[in-house]
Amino acid sequence: MDASLVNVRAQWAATTVRCNGVTAGCACNGAESIEGRPDARSRPRISDRGRMMTQQSPMTSQDDLDRNKAVVRRFVDEIFAAGRKDAVDELVADDFVGHSWPSNGDAKAALKAAIDRVGAGLSDSAFEIEDLIAEGDRVAARLTASATQTGEFMHMPPSGKRYTIEEIHVFRVRDGMVVEHWHQFDQLGMMRQLGAMPAAPQPTG
Questions:
Q1: Which of 42, 95, 194, 204 is the most exposed place for a label (fewest CB within 10 A)?
Q2: In terms of domains, do 65 and 25 share one?
Q3: Is residue 205 part of a domain?
Q4: Are residues 38 and 7 in the same domain?
Q5: Buried/exposed code over 135-149 (b: 16+ C-beta within 10 A; e: otherwise)
Q6: Residue 167 in contact with residue 187, Cβ under 8 Å?
Q7: Are 168 and 121 in a shared domain?
């Protein structure tokens, strides 16, 4: 057998193999590491931010998950679609953190200001929930959003055009109130449909 291979195997056998507490199927308490392995440098690290959500969130009953999803449905219907600012006070916690729009420190007031901006620029807004998935204290929503641009919106002059795009929203819910929100949307597709950017090139045969 190749001497170098024998040497590597000897190093491996002499090394205490320790579990990182993250790898699927590992049953240890997560207090150990794999630093001593000869191949440890070539293995990708998994940070705490990469842990499964179920490991970070407390156990949640199905009734709690359903209640959290009902809160998010109301948020989409009453705040996004209807633009009801009074619903912000009903559904959003005082310590709410919004990661999707600018804020001067009062996130609830910033959300109400965003409702005003959207209402001034868009008409006939509609949000259709395609998927609603709850786990722990978080709810993920995949939406189809559409509206007609009848006023200035995102520094774009009125176009009179309508857009339809997909959006992803993640909500953190506590005691029946939304306490945190993240948002990703197809901004490029929206701007193309509103005429602010050229349409995507069509493939040629």
A1: 204
A2: no
A3: no
A4: yes
A5: ebbbbbbebebbbbb
A6: no
A7: yes
**Amino acid in the structure at residue 164:** T
Q: What is the pLDDT of residues 159-192, one digit of tens each?
A: 999 999 999 999 999 999 999 999 999 999 999 9
CA 183 to chain centre: 6
Question: Is residue 201 assigned to a domain?
Answer: no
Distances (CA, A) of 200 to 19, 41, 157, 187: 48, 43, 21, 13
Radius of gyration of the chain (CA): 24
Task: Give the contacts of 179 (CB within 8 A, at least 6 positions apart).
Answer: 93, 95, 96, 97, 172, 173
User: How far are the Cα atoms of 45, 53, 108, 184 from residue 50, in angstroms, in the given order?
Assistant: 10, 9, 29, 19
Count of Cβ atoms closer than 10 Å to residue 193 Cβ: 19
Predicted confidence (pLDDT) per residue in 72-121, tens digit: 999 999 999 999 999 999 999 999 999 987 778 899 999 999 999 999 99
Does any domain span residue 169?
yes
Domain holding 164, by residue range, is 56-193
61: domain CATH number? 3.10.450.50
